[in-house]
Structure to design on (390 residues):
């Protein structure tokens, strides 16, 4: 068997639909092969060993079905095989901002927006004036600072002068400076205060792109209101999903490559930065956060990218997809346990790029003999045997 490539999450639904569609034929096949009320039965139906079906209960709770396999025309048996996994794990993901490179400008006072100099998607430099904010809070805090600064002289000792006056004055100035800093003023802004002013310019905390603008000229704002969000695209995140059984092959620091539809000839490089501790129980996948260098800032948020994570080779257990039956939201494979006995075994699978094969996560062991053709018919017979035994 040739080497198979590991699957990607976007292939899983295609295979699941392909296989689940087969299970819809089970009732029709059962009627065709067991149609006692029909006076005309096909040759394949008459040759099907429906009357000799028997369920054999094994120790441990397993059930085997006794059936003459030689009478089922077209039935073939294969085996679950171990194949090598390549040293590259592929997945599809989405580009997002690196949240460590995003900065939000918020209002720290109650006031009014007087002037706004930038708009959404503008590029700004760190320290550039973004908007002018009018607030009496600025004037009050600056007046307190100037008053505390004007008394910052050690008084001469003498009668009637309280002890510790100099220390108290220094504490008042320190508190006034701290209040101004909490309002968003830098040390240079504080040192430049000559008289109280009710308006202040808010500056860009980082160099980047204005990705969100909620500020409107003339609008009233309150403490905590978000006004702008800035971000840089020097590096970005790509979030991908990997299957649970591939987790052992992935670790932080691994090198990776990413390619997008927008720039198919450019390979972006990065590393695995974080692995989610939470597993999606519905599809058995978890998220991996890939840190990607973005020269020229070509990668944009919400772009789709195909990621190739360089990992160590491994092995996987595979069976032909024709060996699987989808019944009641569960995949089953029929394992040959004797010359004329089979066991219906529930299995967990993950699909592959190589058409016609499925990767078995659990339920089968290497070398076990499985029915690879006529498994749908066996499933109908299994249901019939359960109906006769109930």
């Amino acid at each position: 068997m040739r080497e198979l490539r590991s699957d990607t999450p976007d292939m899983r639904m295609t295979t699941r639909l392909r296989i689940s569609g087969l299970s819809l034929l089970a009732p029709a096949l059962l009627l065709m092969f067991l149609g006692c009320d029909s006076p005309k039965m096909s040759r394949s139906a008459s040759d099907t060993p429906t009357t000799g079906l028997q369920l054999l209960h094994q120790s441990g709770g397993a059930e085997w079905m006794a059936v003459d396999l030689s009478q089922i025309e077209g039935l073939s048996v294969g085996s679950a095989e171990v194949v090598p996994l390549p040293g590259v794990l592929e997945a599809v993901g989405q580009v997002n901002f690196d949240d460590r490179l995003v900065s939000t400008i918020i209002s720290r006072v109650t006031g009014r927006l007087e002037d706004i100099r930038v708009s959404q998607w503008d590029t700004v430099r760190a320290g550039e004036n973004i908007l002018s904010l009018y607030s009496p809070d600025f004037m009050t805090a600056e007046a307190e600072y100037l008053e505390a600064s004007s008394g910052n002289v050690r008084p001469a000792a003498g009668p009637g002068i309280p002890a510790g006056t100099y220390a108290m004055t220094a504490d008042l100035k320190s508190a006034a400076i701290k209040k101004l800093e909490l309002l968003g003023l830098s040390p240079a802004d504080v040192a430049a205060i000559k008289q109280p002013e009710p308006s202040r310019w808010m500056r860009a905390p980082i160099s980047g792109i204005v990705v969100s603008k909620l500020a409107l000229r003339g609008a009233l704002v309150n403490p905590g209101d978000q006004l702008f969000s800035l971000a840089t695209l020097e590096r970005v995140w790509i979030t991908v999903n990997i299957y649970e059984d591939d987790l052992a092959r992935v670790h932080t620091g691994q090198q990776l490559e990413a390619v997008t539809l927008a720039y198919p000839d450019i390979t972006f490089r990065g590393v695995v930065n974080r692995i989610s501790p939470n597993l999606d129980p519905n599809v058995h996948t978890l998220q991996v956060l890939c840190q990607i260098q973005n020269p020229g800032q070509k990668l944009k948020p919400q772009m789709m990218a195909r990621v190739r994570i360089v990992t160590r080779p491994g092995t996987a257990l595979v069976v032909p997809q024709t060996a699987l039956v989808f019944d009641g939201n569960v995949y089953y494979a029929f394992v040959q346990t004797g010359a004329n006995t089979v066991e219906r075994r529930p299995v967990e699978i993950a699909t592959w790029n190589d058409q016609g094969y499925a990767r078995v996560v659990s339920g089968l062991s290497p070398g076990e003999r499985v029915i690879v053709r006529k498994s749908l018919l066996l499933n109908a017979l299994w249901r019939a045997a359960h109906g006769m035994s109930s």
The chain has three domains: 9-86+315-389, 88-99+249-313, 104-155+164-231. The helical segments are 9-23, 26-34, 43-47, 136-150, 165-182, 187-191, 375-389.
